[in-house]
Write a sequence for this structure.
């Protein structure tokens, strides 16, 4: 009788504990029945005693002495356990009310786990059902202990409980005991009759409780594993923890290997309940448990080995693929019929079917989450669910087993792949009625594509019907007949629709990449669909309409600020309530009855603890001093409660304002305290983490609880719905109920807005991937053509073009006006998102703005590619686009706090996210404008360029800083390229020179190239684009290496920062003692971040050391980009002066010396980040161009001449310069280097001949000898046998197969044609050409011959620049006459072919004009050299170079190759900027 009375008392205490957990726990643990005294019971297993040491906390003892010594023996003797059941319900109520971290809870929790959970299976029971009732009660308490709650103390308690249960064999066996009955056994018990009804019902409840605890337990173990891995990485753990959450403990063995009592693993029993017919609650619980098991189980052995019930039943071995080695275990009795066997696989398939999505959407989503988890973590299990599929056999017009005599043709049961296919077939209707289910189906489909080769069989089945697949995926997108106006109020529904679109777009992007790899992308089904989307129907095309939908952000001004203010109000009112209750209890004394309701504790102990600590922290802030002083009475006693309530009322007023962020006057003391609350982020006292979702990563689902657990706020304040009837009366609505409901409503509104933003972010990311895949690699990842043209001669088919392949490929039917509209829409959306990100609490808009910047970059490049089509943009439209992109870049990167303001050269991480795509878009738009502006008047072009330059001028210092960053990689090259554009007709080079004078260097270290195994800095967003391949969404072949498919952008939003760190990190030192648990966790997180940063720096340093070949630091593509900028600046006096101040010639000499080392050329260019030979030639041209600034008699000119001579005579560089004029073979590279070397010799001799003679007379003589030998060799071409010049690259081979542009047959044109072709065909062609106007040669041999004569012209100009002849370097009259004769013949032949109409193409005519210029330059140079050798002097005071560098047709500018400057690369005249 005494036990029953005590049980009634404890049963009555459970609802009281739910209403006031702190007070109830203090009162109950002081009673003799629950008083902790003595040590732990000796009946616990050995590991349990040690594991529960982490549960003891601050309590002095752990055992419930009276319970263990008196109550349990009496209950065991009677076989009834009313007091233990009441105690378990009390523990569950206390844990549900947030009292878990309290030290007084440790004895209660230990008793429940050690004495009850691990021992109750051996107790005596009067009824069989009592055992299952006991198990359900203790497991429900365990589930409450594992529930995620705010605060580090709750997390520590949860981790300790999970670790104990997972590692102790006795705890595992007891917790999973109901799984000894699989679904078939429990069904047999149910069918035995009514006499076992109570036992079966209790067993079903126990099974449901066990299935419910598995996801919480496994997720807690995942968190433990992640925390341990982080601690090991930071050096705070000596041993490396297991990578898998389950590891190799008792729980892993029981679930995956063998049951604790022997027999099959318990995972099979879990799966069997998916088909249990009598308890409707089992299947919804089974699927989340299986999904969590997939996420936590190790990769080896595969989970499919423990789940034979989910394999196909009509074959003993699975079909081909990764799971082909799995033998199925036929456990069922052969005497059972098919209807007697519980088919768990069929139950999962039915849950994925469209009918289930209509009947039970939650179950359908759980099934999709399970299949997604299996595809991402356990591909063999996913394959067993997906294959064989009926879909694979329907192509023949009949089902398997119909119309076939094959013995192997058996009826194939529907598979998960068939259900997915059917669900996609109803996508349009599901999108309208149940978008959440459609989002789950599409995510599972995307996970199949991300499964790589392991799931390639299932993907191939889907791809076997390409047209239907694309049509069904297209139905997941917004219908074309939908009204433009969307329902902005239903953010949750729109979030699920956008999520479905994101998944569908990712699959379409993968299909596009697969078609591209197959070589038939334009004729594929996805290619036809994309082309159809580009067609304008009505006002605009479907694609443009979708782009507007994916890019336009939804502004919700004040929503997040209002939610934050509401959270402040609740936290402060809770703090005031807790302060008053603590004071009242202290005044009344222990055990006294409270005089009024305000003395009771809050409905949640965690809220009470956090609120009390946050209130004390706020009142310790300096801003609260004045307000506290005003609240003091005559005796000096401060009314802390009144202060907190006043600030809470101010927070409620701020939340009720129109924008949710109304600020009070600075002179208002209440306003200052409220600002201090914002600064301290007191809202973290009540903001609980969102409940984990169904998916593998545990990310929350879209909806009101997406950001925070708003339901917990309602429950914690006493205004939420009660969990059960026996608990409801104990939690009456208190003073915090109304503000709690208001805060929860505000949090839900903010969560729905953030859900839509997150889904839109995912959809936009997938859309960018699809557009990039459709546009092709030449547009998605374009080559830097400005840099290429500066490095060396660009092949003819690339000149005047932004993209070297078919522009925009699948988007070629998208009109230029539609492309411009899409780019402008993205630019406008980016501006809106950037402005919205400044609002309080709207950090997710910053992530959306970053993705929109990528969309802007891609859409602008797609628009710019139209310059290569028959419908190019107008010049005015191109200028508007360039101006818009320049304005967006300057605005985003010059924002206060995010970039360059008032001449600052530093950017934050947020600004750096925008920098790369915006600068890329600006560069592409400017280059498109330059091409389209060639047909406009020079004055208009000058005015437009000046306006663009002024818009970009605020970025000058930032660009200089980025350009000068050592080893800047792609980012540095981008900054240098934009500086190049700005200095080319937009701004005077004096602007860059002025920035350099102000201490803003713009040149990075000029170092040799690094090997490609080291990744370049600033290579772009991970998994976005790499080399020629555009990672559109994912690639099935390498998705496993990159991880699971990313559809949910919650981790990148930034809004979760409200709850990711304890708020004590932002507080002063005064309240540290009160918030020590929070501060300890903050310090731990800060230490982990610091350790991670140090590890990253050490890894970067080690990578740099590995990259340090031969003791020389190496660079990337920023080096040739810097050389290209220097080449442009050297042509202007201000730029040349800036380069002189930067000591460029000395740095160029060191670079050329390092590039001349043999190890940079022994393995070819492909091994290095940039071509060392091309960079070497570019460096020579920069030095030769700088020689023009050395003319004159000033001190600076003299220093520059000395540096130039030192450059030409230092180290081993002279040997390479001389050897370049003695080429061993005729190739494009050898002749390019020969021309650059001859031009450099000419520049040095023109300005520093005397210094050269004094410094290194032998070097000078050898240089003249090398030039003489080259001229003598060119003067005598081997016309009969020809000269070998076989093409080396694919481009050269293509040129060799193309007819010549002009077809000259003079001298080396004939020789090289003979050397590049077969002897017979060359001889016949030569004979025909000699007697007719037919063209001779090909593009390859013709270009080599032109380059050969250009080098000869430079050598002749070099020798003619000396003041007197040298008998040791005598070319001879015969050789000079031969050269002049060949030049005259070239001019005459070109003129004859042009007059005859043989050369009609514009590019061919431009090449003919280039040949005329080369011949004219060669004629003038050989004539001058002949006069010098005849004894005429060449006085140095005369400007000899005017003959070769003036405005005549035979100019020999040192900045360009003769082929480049005089050929088809026509540059319109631009008025000089003064």
């Amino acid at each position: 009788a005494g036990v029953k009375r005590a049980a009634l008392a404890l049963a009555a205490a459970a609802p009281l504990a739910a209403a006031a957990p702190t007070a109830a726990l203090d009162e109950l643990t002081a009673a003799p029945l629950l008083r902790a005294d003595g040590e732990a019971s000796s009946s616990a297993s050995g590991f349990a005693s040690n594991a529960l040491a982490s549960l003891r906390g601050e309590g002095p003892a752990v055992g419930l002495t009276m319970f263990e010594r008196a109550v349990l023996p009496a209950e065991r003797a009677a076989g009834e356990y009313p007091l233990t059941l009441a105690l378990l319900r009390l523990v569950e109520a206390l844990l549900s009310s947030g009292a878990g971290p309290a030290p007084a809870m440790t004895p209660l929790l230990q008793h429940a786990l050690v004495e009850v959970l691990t021992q109750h299976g051996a107790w005596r029971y009067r009824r069989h059902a009592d055992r299952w009732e006991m198990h359900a009660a203790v497991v429900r308490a365990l589930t409450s202990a594992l529930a995620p709650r705010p605060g580090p103390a709750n997390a520590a308690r949860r981790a300790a409980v999970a670790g104990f249960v997972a590692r102790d064999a006795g705890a595992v066996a007891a917790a999973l005991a109901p799984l000894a009955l699989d679904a078939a056994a429990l069904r047999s018990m149910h069918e035995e009759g009514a006499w076992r009804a109570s036992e079966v019902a209790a067993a079903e409840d126990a099974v449901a409780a066990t299935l419910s605890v598995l996801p919480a337990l496994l997720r807690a173990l995942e968190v433990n594993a992640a925390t341990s891995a982080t601690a090991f990485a930071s050096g705070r753990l000596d041993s490396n923890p297991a990578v898998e959450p389950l590891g190799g403990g008792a729980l892993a063995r029981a679930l995956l290997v063998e049951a604790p009592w022997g027999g099959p693993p318990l995972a099979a029993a879990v799966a069997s309940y998916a088909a249990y017919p009598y308890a409707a609650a089992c299947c919804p619980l089974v699927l989340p448990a299986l999904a969590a098991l997939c996420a936590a189980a190790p990769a080896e052995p595969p989970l499919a080995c423990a789940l034979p019930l989910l394999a196909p039943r009509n074959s003993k071995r699975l079909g081909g693929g990764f799971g082909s080695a799995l033998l199925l275990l036929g456990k069922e009795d052969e005497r059972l019929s098919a209807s007697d066997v519980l088919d768990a696989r069929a139950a999962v398939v039915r849950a994925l079917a469209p009918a289930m999505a209509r009947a039970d959407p939650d179950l359908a989503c759980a099934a999709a989450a399970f299949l997604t988890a299996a595809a991402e973590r356990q591909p063999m299990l996913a394959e067993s669910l997906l294959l064989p599929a009926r879909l694979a056999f329907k192509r023949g017009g009949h089902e398997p087993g119909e119309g076939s005599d094959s013995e192997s043709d058996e009826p194939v049961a529907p598979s998960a792949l068939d259900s997915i296919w059917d669900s996609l077939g109803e996508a349009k209707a599901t999108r309208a009625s149940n978008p959440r289910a459609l989002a789950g189906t599409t995510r599972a489909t995307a996970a199949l594509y991300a499964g790589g080769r392991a799931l390639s069989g299932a993907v191939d089945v889907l791809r076997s019907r390409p047209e239907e697949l694309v049509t069904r995926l297209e139905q997941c997108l917004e219908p074309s007949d939908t009204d433009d106006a969307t329902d902005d109020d239903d953010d949750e529904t729109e979030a699920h629709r956008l999520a479905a679109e994101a998944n569908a777009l990712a699959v379409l992007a993968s299909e596009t990449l697969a078609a591209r790899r197959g070589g038939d992308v334009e004729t594929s089904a996805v290619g036809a669909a994309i082309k159809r989307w580009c067609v304008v129907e009505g006002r605009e095309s479907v694609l443009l309409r979708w782009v507007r939908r994916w890019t336009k952000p939804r502004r919700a001004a004040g929503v997040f600020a209002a939610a934050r203010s509401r959270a402040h109000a609740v936290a402060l009112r809770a703090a005031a309530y807790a302060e008053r209750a603590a004071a009242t209890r202290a005044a009344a004394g222990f055990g006294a009855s409270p005089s009024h309701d305000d003395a009771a504790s809050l409905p949640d102990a965690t809220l009470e603890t956090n609120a009390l600590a946050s209130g004390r922290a706020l009142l310790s802030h300096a801003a609260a001093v004045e307000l506290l002083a005003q609240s003091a009475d005559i005796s000096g006693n401060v009314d802390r409660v009144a202060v907190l309530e006043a600030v809470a009322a101010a927070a409620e007023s701020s939340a009720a304002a129109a924008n949710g962020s109304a600020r009070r006057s600075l002179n208002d003391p209440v306003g200052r305290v409220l600002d201090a609350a914002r600064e301290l982020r007191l809202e973290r006292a009540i903001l609980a983490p969102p409940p984990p979702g169904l998916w593998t990563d545990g990310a929350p689902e879209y909806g009101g609880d997406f950001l925070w657990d708003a339901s917990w706020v309602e429950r914690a304040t006493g205004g939420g719905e009660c969990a059960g009837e026996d608990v409801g009366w104990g939690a009456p609505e208190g003073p915090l109920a109304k503000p709690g409901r208001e805060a929860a409503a505000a949090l839900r509104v903010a969560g729905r807005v953030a859900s839509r933003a997150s889904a839109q972010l995912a959809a936009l990311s997938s859309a960018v991937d699809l557009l990039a895949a459709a546009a092709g690699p030449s547009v998605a990842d374009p080559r830097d053509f400005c840099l290429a043209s500066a490095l060396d001669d660009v092949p003819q088919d690339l000149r005047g073009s932004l993209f070297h392949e078919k522009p925009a490929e699948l988007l070629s039917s998208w009109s230029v006006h539609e492309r411009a509209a899409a780019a402008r829409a993205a630019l406008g959306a980016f501006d809106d998102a950037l402005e919205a990100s400044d609002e309080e609490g709207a950090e997710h808009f910053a992530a959306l703005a970053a993705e929109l910047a990528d969309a802007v970059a891609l859409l602008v490049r797609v628009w710019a590619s139209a310059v290569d089509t028959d419908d190019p943009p107008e010049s005015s439209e191109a200028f508007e686009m360039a101006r818009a992109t320049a304005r967006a870049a300057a605005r985003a990167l010059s924002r206060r706090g995010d970039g360059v303001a008032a001449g600052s050269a530093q950017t934050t991480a947020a600004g750096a996210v925008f920098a790369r795509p915006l600068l890329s878009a600006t560069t592409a738009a400017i280059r498109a404008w330059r091409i389209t502006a060639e047909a406009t008047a020079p004055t208009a072009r000058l005015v437009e360029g000046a306006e663009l330059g002024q818009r970009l001028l605020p970025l000058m210092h930032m660009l200089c800083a980025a350009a000068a960053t050592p080893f800047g990689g792609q980012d540095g090259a981008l900054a240098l390229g934009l500086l190049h554009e700005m200095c080319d007709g937009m701004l005077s080079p004096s602007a860059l020179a002025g920035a350099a004078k102000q201490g803003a260097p713009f040149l990075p270290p000029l170092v040799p190239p690094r090997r490609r195994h080291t990744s370049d800095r600033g290579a772009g967003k991970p998994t976005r684009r790499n080399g020629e391949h555009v990672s559109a969404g994912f690639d099935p072949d390498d998705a496993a290496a990159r991880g699971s498919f990313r559809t949910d952008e919650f981790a990148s939003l930034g809004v979760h920062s409200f709850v990711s760190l304890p708020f004590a990190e932002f507080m002063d030192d005064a309240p540290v003692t009160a918030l020590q648990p929070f501060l300890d966790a903050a310090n731990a997180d800060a230490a982990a971040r610091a350790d991670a940063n140090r590890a990253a720096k050490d890894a970067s340093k080690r990578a740099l050391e590995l990259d340090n070949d031969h003791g020389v630091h190496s660079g990337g593509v920023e080096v040739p980009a810097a050389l290209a900028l220097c080449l442009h600046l050297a042509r202007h006096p201000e730029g040349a002066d800036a380069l002189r101040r930067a000591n460029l010639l000395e740095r160029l000499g060191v670079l050329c010396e390092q590039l001349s080392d043999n190890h940079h050329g022994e393995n070819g260019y492909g091994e290095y980040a940039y071509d060392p030979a091309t960079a070497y030639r570019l460096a020579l041209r920069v030095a030769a161009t700088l020689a023009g600034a050395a003319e004159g008699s000033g001190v600076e000119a003299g220093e520059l001449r000395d540096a130039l001579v030192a450059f030409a005579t230092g180290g081993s560089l002279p040997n390479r310069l001389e050897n370049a004029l003695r080429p061993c073979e005729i190739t494009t590279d050898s002749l390019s280097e020969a021309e650059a070397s001859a031009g450099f010799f000419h520049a040095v001799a023109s300005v520093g001949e005397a210094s050269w003679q004094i410094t290194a007379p032998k070097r000078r003589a050898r240089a003249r000898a090398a030039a003489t030998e080259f001229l003598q060799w060119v003067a005598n071409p081997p016309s009969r046998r020809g000269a070998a010049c076989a093409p080396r690259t694919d481009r050269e081979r293509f040129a060799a197969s193309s007819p010549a542009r002009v077809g000259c047959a003079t001298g080396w044109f004939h020789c090289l044609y003979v050397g590049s072709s077969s002897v017979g065909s060359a001889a016949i062609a030569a004979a025909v050409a000699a007697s007719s106007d037919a063209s001779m040669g090909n593009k390859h041999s013709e270009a080599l011959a032109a380059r050969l004569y250009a080098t000869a012209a430079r050598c002749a100009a070099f020798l003619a620049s000396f003041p007197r002849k040298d008998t040791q370097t005598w070319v001879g009259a015969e050789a000079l006459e031969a050269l002049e004769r060949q030049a005259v013949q070239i001019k005459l032949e070109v003129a004859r072919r042009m007059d005859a109409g043989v050369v009609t193409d514009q590019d061919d005519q431009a090449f003919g004009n280039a040949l005329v210029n080369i011949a004219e330059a060669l004629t003038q140079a050989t004539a001058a050299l002949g006069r010098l050798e005849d004894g005429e002097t060449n006085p140095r005071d005369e400007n000899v170079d005017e003959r070769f560098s003036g405005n005549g047709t035979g100019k020999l500018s040192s900045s360009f190759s003769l082929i480049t400057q005089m050929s088809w690369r026509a540059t319109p005249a631009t008025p000089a900027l003064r």
